[in-house]
């Protein structure tokens, strides 16, 4: 029989048919809503706190945005260096989420709330918001103290002590607005609202970083060979991240034999359980950075000679900072993986459904088998996160 080839017979061609995308009105609305929300966020990173001299703040930001403050400024999309209403970013919300998730493992009451379904999750979300306000209050007060400390010589604050009255509520309100905006992107946009806001803040600094690198190459501060080497490392790192994030271990699952509907005897259904190499995703780097921000804020509040020494240890250039950062990365890689995947619960669900792993007895043996595989995968995933996060 002659096989007639049509112009649009290839599924590859049909996959890139723009008319199909044009008909997806709900998807277009979600994408446009997400882009609009990110635009609002970027505009907010340029709205300064009331009572500040913007020229002096810009100069101070250029001089002091190295080390730890530079990293926090990157997470806030440059808002911290410009001292805007979004200077805190989502760090207080992330810190509150860490604490609540830790207590869901420790506290039986919160653990019971987590298992109550949608109503329990709403209660936990409410507790997270309350804690966000408290942490944002501490962070905002610390920022105001720091600004006032160099205002005595630089003259950055033009309204005196009244700055605390207007700046602290502005910073807390900015964080709460970003928290609400992230939730809106999650529900009405394309999802992962908080991660997208943090990602947008980081990406916003990339053009300036590229231009600075090219300018250094033009002036001779960086050789052409070094610029080429940096470009190669960046491309290789991106390819490595994509490969590792897509890597997974597929565990074969068999289900009981059933009578075939076409009368050819019994058949056996098979599927697989995918376990990602990095099940925790970007959560460990974000959580580790957020936790390291807490002692830095306390140090800025206390002041004194020992506080300056502690600030040096908390600088990314110091080995102590990197050691603490690695420990937190590994801890949160295992901790968050344990939260999102429970081998005992998965094994019980498989047993109830009649599924089994070939060569492994159902029940406790299946749970131990899954736990062993997941632990080995998480070791590799944690090592991968350490390499990527320490590469800069």
CATH class of the domain at 26-206: Mainly Alpha
Given helix and strand content, the structural type is mainly alpha
Q: Major sheet: size, sense and barrel closure? A: 2 strands, antiparallel
Low-confidence stretches: 1-16
CATH topology of the domain at 26-206: Preprotein translocase SecY subunit
Q: Look at the structure and give the mean pLDDT.
A: 81
Strand order of the largest sheet: 1-2
- What level of helicity do the residues show? over 70%
Total E-strand runs: 2
The number of distinct helices, counting runs of at least 4 residues, comes to 18
User: What is the overall silhouette?
Assistant: globular
Note the beta-strand portion.
5-15%
CATH H level of the domain at 26-206: which superfamily? SecY subunit domain
CATH architecture of the domain at 26-206: Orthogonal Bundle
């Amino acid at each position: 029989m002659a096989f007639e080839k049509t112009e649009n017979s290839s599924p590859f061609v049909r996959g890139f048919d723009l008319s199909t995308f044009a008909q997806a009105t709900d998807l277009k609305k979600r994408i446009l809503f997400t882009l609009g929300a990110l635009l609002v966020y970027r505009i907010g990173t340029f709205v300064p706190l009331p009572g500040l001299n913007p020229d002096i703040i810009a100069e101070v930001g250029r001089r002091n945005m190295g080390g730890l403050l530079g990293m926090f400024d990157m997470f806030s999309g440059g808002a911290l260096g410009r001292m805007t209403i979004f200077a805190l970013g989502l760090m207080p919300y992330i810190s509150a989420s860490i604490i609540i998730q830790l207590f869901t493992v420790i506290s039986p009451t919160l653990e019971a709330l987590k298992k109550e379904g949608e109503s329990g999750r709403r209660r936990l979300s409410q507790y997270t918001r309350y804690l966000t306000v408290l942490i944002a209050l501490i962070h905002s007060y610390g920022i105001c103290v720091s600004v006032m400390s160099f205002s005595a010589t630089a003259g950055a604050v033009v309204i005196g002590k009244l700055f605390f009255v207007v700046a602290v509520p502005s910073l807390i309100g900015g964080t709460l607005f970003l928290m609400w905006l992230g939730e809106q992107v999650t529900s009405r946009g394309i999802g992962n609202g908080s991660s997208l806001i943090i990602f947008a803040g980081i990406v916003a600094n990339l053009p300036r970083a590229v231009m600075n690198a090219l300018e250094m190459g033009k002036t001779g501060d960086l050789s052409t060979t070094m610029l080429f080497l940096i470009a190669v490392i960046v491309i290789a790192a991106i390819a490595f991240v994509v490969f590792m994030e897509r890597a997974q271990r597929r565990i074969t699952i068999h289900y009981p034999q059933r009578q075939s509907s076409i009368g050819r005897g019994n058949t056996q259904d098979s599927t697989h359980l995918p376990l990602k190499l990095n099940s925790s995703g970007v959560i460990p780097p974000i959580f580790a950075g957020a936790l390291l921000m807490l002692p830095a804020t306390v140090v800025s509040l206390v002041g004194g000679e020992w506080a300056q020494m502690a600030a040096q240890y908390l600088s990314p250039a110091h080995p102590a900072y990197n050691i603490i950062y690695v420990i937190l990365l590994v801890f949160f890689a295992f901790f968050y993986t344990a939260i999102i995947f429970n081998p005992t619960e998965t094994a019980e669900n498989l047993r109830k459904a009649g599924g089994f792993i070939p060569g492994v007895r159902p029940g406790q043996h299946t749970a131990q088998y899954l736990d062993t595989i997941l632990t080995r995968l998480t070791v590799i995933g944690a090592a991968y996160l350490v390499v990527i996060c320490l590469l800069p």
